[in-house]
Amino acid sequence: MIFAQYASGQGAIDYLVLLTLTCVAIVMGLYIVFQAYRGYRRNDSRRMLFLAIGLALLTIVPFVLSLVVAGVGQRFGFESRVYTSYLPIVNRGLEICGLSAILYSLYTRN
Length: 110
Known about the structure:
single chain, mainly alpha, 91% helix, elongated
């Protein structure tokens, strides 16, 4: 009985640590994307706009999507395949789009 309480308590602590780190990563990503967007607005640089979009797709969108899917999944009881297959596939697609936008920003001319 005590082990079960410890395990559930430890699981809650692990979840809170993961949630805290995810929120810190989102805030840091938002700050970096905001700075790139400010560079776009200040210099009217299309390259900076694509850099901001790419960074957002790499740093913010996958984290937020994971949090949303976890919250909605708990509420509606998603099957494990959503977490082990569909979510990683969507996240990898977003990463590819983000990296493509960053590459475009590096190799395009204003």
